[in-house]
Design a protein that fits this description.
Elements lengths: L4 E6 L4 H13 L15 H11 L1 E6 L2 E11 L2 E9 L8 H15 L4 E7 L3 H9 L3 E6 L2 E7 L2 E5 L2 H12 L7 E5 L6 H12 L13 E4 L7 E6 L21 E7 L11 E8 L5 E8 L9 H8 L1
Parallel strand pairs: 4-5, 9-12, 9-13, 11-12
Antiparallel strand pairs: 1-2, 2-3, 3-4, 5-7, 6-7, 8-14, 10-11, 13-14
The protein binds adenosine-5'-diphosphate (ADP) and magnesium ion.
The site of adenosine-5'-diphosphate has 17 residues, from helix 5 and helix 6.
């Protein structure tokens, strides 16, 4: 048996195939209360949706096997009626649709993707979680899941890195958590210095040798900057255990870490990954996680340094 899977961007001309997939996929799910409205879709409603915003159709060995509808929601690209037929489940059809949807969102300049899932279907929720989607809203049994797209910028000099921190710092609010990863010398502390300058906090921001975290109070009544340097620690620090005598909800927390430790965190955070290239230029990739960052205009942060 061959597993020839193709993912195609389709318009209203493929409405019949898409409708057939949506109806069959959703009819095969356990009964939900309130029921999913997907079964109410008609040829007309699907054709209209596809003509306006398009969708994806997956074919497996030439036969329709999966589908979804696109729905722009401001700066987010919504995914509706994500359905995969039972016989092809486990072949990666949903993963391929998700990855194509992500590429399209990126190409079209959306800042993230959003979809609705049902709490009664934990396997579905886990599928999206594993792809980096997080819960952003809950309305009864309907869960909204959000995945912001990463943005990468080039930082030519240490001054660019600092300036990037300043422009980012100006957009931060009390309660924000920033996770900086990257090798030693990548520019994590330099970036934090820029953030501290934007916040107008007291004290020099350095790489602390003996202390793991320092609190820099604001000089103007704004939020403090909590700067934790956990680079030398084996695992993620428990921020609550640091005994900082500071309410993290009232502060902006920046944690410097080595590569690959941030994944174990949950909740809203801004992940910043710095990479030092052979020519000494750095690139920074920002991955906003969670609803906090839905409206944050990170694109304009970068235009100041990449333009
Ligand atoms: P980290 O905290 O990740 O270990 P630092 O911020 O201490 O890294 O930076 C290490 C060195 O790299 C500093 O001397 C800093 O000036 C320099 N640096 C930071 N950003 C850049 C950049 N974009 N280009 C060149 N040098 C940089
Ligand atoms: Mg450092």
């Amino acid at each position: 048996m061959s597993d020839d899977i193709t993912v195609e961007v389709v318009d209203g001309s493929r409405a019949a195939d898409v409708l057939a997939v949506v109806h069959e996929a959703f009819a095969n799910r356990p009964p939900l209360d309130p029921p999913a409205t997907a079964l109410e879709e008609t040829l007309e409603s699907v054709r209209e949706a596809l003509s306006q915003h398009g969708g994806l159709l997956v074919e497996h060995d030439g036969a329709p096997a999966g589908a979804l509808l696109f729905e722009p929601r401001g700066r987010l690209l919504g995914l509706r009626r994500v359905g995969v037929l039972a016989p092809v489940r486990g072949l990666g059809v949903a993963a391929q649709m998700a990855s194509r949807a992500r590429e399209i969102a990126q190409e079209l300049g959306f800042t993230g993707l959003e979809l609705e899932a049902r709490v009664e279907l934990p396997a579905t929720i886990n599928f999206w979680r594993n792809l980096g989607y997080v819960e952003s809203e809950r309305n009864g049994n309907r869960l909204t899941m959000l995945r912001m797209l990463p943005i990468t910028h080039r930082l030519e000099t240490a001054e660019d890195t600092r300036a990037f921190g300043e422009h980012l710092g100006a957009r931060l609010e009390a309660g924000d958590l920033l996770i900086l990863t990257g090798d030693l010398g990548a520019g994590k502390t330099t970036l934090t210095q820029g953030i501290g300058a934007a916040l107008g906090v007291r004290g020099a921001i350095t790489s602390p040798t003996f202390v793991i975290a320092r609190v820099h109070p604001s000089l103007s009544g704004g939020p403090s900057l909590v700067h934790a340097d956990a680079y030398r620690l084996d695992g993620p620090p428990e921020l609550d255990d640091l005994d900082l005598d500071t309410d993290l909800d009232q502060a902006i927390t920046v944690v410097e870490w080595g590569e690959g430790v941030a994944e174990s965190l949950s909740g809203d955070r801004l992940e910043l990954s710095l990479h030092r290239h052979r020519d000494d230029v750095r690139t920074i990739t920002l991955t906003p996680v969670g609803p906090r960052w839905r409206e944050l205009d990170l694109g304009s942060v970068g235009s100041l340094t990449s333009g």
